[in-house]
Fold:
Amino acid sequence: QVQLRESGGGLVEAGSSLRLSCTASGSTFSNYAMAWFRQAPGKERQFVASISMRGSGAFYADSVKGRFTISRDNAENTVDLQMDSLIPEDTAIYYCAAKPYAVSRDVRAFESWGQGTQVTVSS
Structure:
């Protein structure tokens, strides 16, 4: 399994931007589809964005489409989430996740998870 570590969370005002980063280690990064999920207090973990092994395909939840961008650098073993035009409803713990090969939106399909990073958006 690949080990994942997120960074870049914080407290920002509505309308601001944040960039989350996830660094992978322990396995061949380019063999993994990557994704970001988030979990707000009292709610289930939900899909945010995913990207294919080589970055040719990216997929987004409707709630973040047009505001968030997922990208990866297979040479650096990183996957980033650029979050623009943040709104209070984006407040959650954001998790990086990995699964071998095929990209997915299904939280149950991902076998490796980071520890999460808190994003708080004030109104």
About this structure: The longest strand covers residues 92-100. The mean pLDDT is 97. The CA atoms of residues 20 and 51 lie 15 Å apart. The radius of gyration is 13 Å.
